[in-house]
Fold this protein.
Amino acid sequence: MDRFIYLDNAATTKTSPEVIEAMRPYFGELFGNPASAYTFAGNINSDVDRARKAIAGFINASADEIYFTSGGSESDNWALKGTAFALKNKGKHIITTVIEHHAILNACNYLERSGYDVTYLSVDENGLISLEELKAAIRPDTILISVMFANNEIGTIEPITEIGRIAHEHGILFHTDAVQAYGHIPIDVKHLGIDMLSVSGHKINAPKGIGFLYIRKGIKIEPLIHGGSQERGKRGGTTNVAGIIGLAKATELAAESLDKRAEYERELRDYLIGRIENEIPYALLNGDRSKRLPNNVNFCFRFIEGESMLLLLDQYGICASSGSACTSGSLDPSHVLLAIGRPHEIAHGSLRLTLSEETRKDDIDFTVDTLKHIIERLRSMSPLYEDFIKEKRAGA
Amino acid sequence: MSQTTEYSKKVLDHFMNPRNVGEMEDPSGVGTVGNAKCGDIMRMYLDIDEDGVIREAKFKTFGCGAAVATSSMATELIKGKTIKEALQITNQAVAEALDGLPKIKLHCSLLAEQAIHAALWDYAERHGITIEGLTKPVNDIDETEEFYQMEE
């Protein structure tokens, strides 16, 4: 297989060579523990501080509001459990949405089992929450609103500014899982009224195992990882120096290229959506057309199942993902696709293609050409398609 | 979860090059099992001669790689067999013939067994006969207890 077309950048990205280069010394000669007393370690501590400052600047926060974690899931868990525990005397009600990542949904589920009350906001057919429903869900004991910045499956960008405003009008904290948005769309935490924000490094060409939680100054939060005095005593564990340096470098690169990259990806994304809609019948676009991540394409192809599509695409060197039950390890297809109203049998036939700045038009053309052929083949063996065609003929 | 690396070579072969895909103009029996909700539907067509030998078997499947591979293997296993012999082909036999299935895909082999039974049931009904040892298959495999046991 000569061709390798990676269209799963929402799952993870390649650590960029510049990031690896920036990290390299911290695996070798600069191995010291920044918490140690000697100059050798102190210099490393200064490097971590510089990295923290650079990252903070990118989202218009200050350095002491950035808390490094192992990634998105830890940040999400910490934001939810940490505030729930810290504010339990104020109230035990949390508002989130039905389309969150499982790091949020399963943490909420845990909190529900621990005596908290969670309201899950519904979404419309494009995956957008309703601000009216949000306002109506607020109670005197609501302590936290957690709504994702952009959805990982269908790419829909939520009305973050408005959510932040509503939360603050009611004196409620606002957390957002920005794992898919960070580095792809500009984020200004002050302007957007965000109190806590989760980020993962490996989605923006940093390595896996590093991320951060932005926590606005003055917010009460319990630690999730109790331990040493790292991260101002809020998150124990020896500092992941190389990871932090890598995340700062990846952030710097993402900040430099953001506008141009987003424009490039958006154009390619719309070209891909257009070709699929024009050339493949019974294809349904999932997610909002305009309020959408620049690199996200997600379709349901009727009468076929997602895993079989992925297996065939893999034969052509194309890496993609699906929300079918067979790829989730359960009997139910993606909770996000069900939430936007796709029936089970249609949700099983979903395909997500997520681009990067390295994706070329030629890759997109090859992918669509291959996809046309694969879908035709799978439909020719589908009893659902057989019935559909027979009914159509009988009706005509 | 990586499907490609979890499937045996035989499963991948039967998925990539499925045997006996298609419909039949005038089948002796046809049966559809499964549930679109769960993401698997199998339809099996049988052509059975006067001596009760399965001359031809065809299938159509909506489902994952394992669902297609088990359908393909099931049609291969029953071709040339008598009805009685075909009834002996269990889900385990289908899975074994494919050099095994990942645990979470075992229900696909049960679906293949059910598809054979459903097509035979239709054949018996059309001919007004009873086939010894054949019970009416449920259309929705979710309803069978065995299904849940296999999931564990």
